[in-house]
Amino acid sequence: MARSLKKGPYIDEQLLSQVRDLKAGDRKIIKSWARRATITPEMIGFNFGVYNGKDFVTVLATEEMVGHKLGEFSPTTKFHRHGGKVQKEQEEKAAAATSAPAAAAAKSAPGPKKK
Predict the structure, then answer these.
(1) How many Å apart are CA 61 and CA 74, to the nearest integer?
(2) What is the three-class DSSP state of 30?
(3) What is the DSSP code (8-state) at residue 109?
(4) Which of 10, 61, 86, 104 is the most buried (most CB within 10 A)?
(5) What is the pTM of this model?
(6) What's phi and psi for 69, nearest 5 deg?
(7) What is the mean pLDDT of each run of 10 residues along the chain (115 residues)?
(8) Where along the chain do its domains lie?
């Protein structure tokens, strides 16, 4: 559920103070566990290491990210793939499609000339 508009966005004060201490264009990674902190215009151009439960994912704050949460750019789960017979058939089709152009290119390439 979104935060109430009368309360305003949640900004972690410690995170904001670390951003203010750095100079613009500094490439130091600011480590943060505050996934719920909202990205503000002051944070643009800085690198954040956002904790996802296992390690820190580096996030470079850009203009398009203003108003979003830091945690949105650091996924906590990793999608492997769906299993089953249908998935196996799709993978075989994809492998055949990628190998077919390579085989056609090998046939059309000029080979060594015979005497």
Answers:
(1) 12
(2) strand
(3) S
(4) 61
(5) 0.65
(6) -90, 150
(7) 76 89 84 90 90 92 91 87 83 85 62 62
(8) 13-73
What 3-state class would DSSP assign to 32?
strand
Are the C-beta atoms of 50 and 59 separated by less than 8 Å? yes
- How is residue 62 written in tokens? 């850009």
Beta-carbon contacts of residue 16 (< 8 Å; ≥ 6 apart)? 40, 42
Please tell me what DSSP assigns to residue 69: B
pLDDT of residue 28: 87
- Phi/psi class of residue 25: alpha, beta or left (left: φ > 0; alpha: ψ in -120 to 50)? left
Q: What is the pLDDT of residue 110?
A: 64
Distance CA 34, CA 41 (A): 17
